[in-house]
Input
Amino acid sequence: MTPSDPTQAAVIGDIVAQGIAHVETPHAEAAFENEPPTVLFIDQSGELGGAEFALLPLARHWASRGKVLLLSDGPFRERLESAGVSVDVSANARISGVRRDALRFAWLGAFPAIAGQVVSIARKARRYDLVFVNSQKALVLGAFGKLLHGRPVVWYLHDILSRDHFGRVQLAIVRWLALHAVDHVIANSRASADALVSLTLRPDYPVRVVHNGIDAAAFAVPDAQDRAALRRRLGLPEDAWLAGLFGRLAPWKGQHVALAALARLPGAHLVLAGAALFGEHEYERELHRQAQALGVADRVHFAGFCDDVPAWMSAMDVIVHTSTEAEPFGRVIVEGMMAERAVIATAAGGVKEIVTHGENGWLVEPGNIDELVAAMAALRDDPMLAQRLAARGRADAQRNFSLDAYLRQMSRAIGDVAV
Output
């Protein structure tokens, strides 16, 4: 089935048809004058991933004029509520169990639940001036209901839409929604934007690029200058050379590549800071087995999910990023730069919009263990080079990825659609 298959229109029509009988015709869109619009933010996950960390400051900024609707519960709800954000949870186990790389039959089996969720979200959306969808499932459930709620839909795209991560049916549905149901798309990188434009088959398809913003103040770690004390506080070896890899444990994030490189760097230690968030627990077990097989288990520290990322990054000598496929953005790379640590990253996707090789970081080919070993050895053996990259990286990150600039750009985009 190709993205242009006409049966996709039938699927969309069926969902809308099931819902129309249950929801009265929406009122005309509200006229927005001087007052900022009210916004319903929709996110599929209760976990704390990159998309959720991007939404958090925006939802906090919009707290007096908006609400976040989560399609599953978890620590993200707690984080939002602690920031003063109003949150609703509308979880449906049948829908949340459908993975984005699932076959079409999994989606078809969840069809009744999807239709019901579309109608439920539409009812909520009609209380707001604008709907902001922050993930793929949120896009499907929020944008399909546009005929029912009649509100403008803004989509913040956090993915490179390709067959590497998405099935044909999912891509076909996303293409239809992008062309017919979304009023404005914001992408977290040029790489993400270009993949969507390619998917739509319309070279002139408009996408606004807004990179994630990082709060530089959060990286002013009080004990960062006393690294030994900081490491003691975190339970890390005080005198070892530490490379830190931050991100969820998943095969495409490449933790196995980092372990293979570590085996060729005697004396170096690796901190894996992240958890298996979306069912990748077998991969986590494989990493433990790999560390044992390579004889490096005593030099690998599985830290799990780290709530205080600035402190953990400040405790490292270098930050490594080892994704084997194109990264939509690379938030942890910017965070490593904010922490003033030299960053080694794979040169694909949005990463190349962040790192300039040899100036503010070091780029390696995705999956290339030899290049990763050489980069880690070079920065371990030349602390002055590492410090120079770190200092330039911090300056570039503060200039190019500030939280204030991010909030201004996102607010402007929301305002433009709401007019």
Observations:
- The chain is about 45% helix and 15% strand.
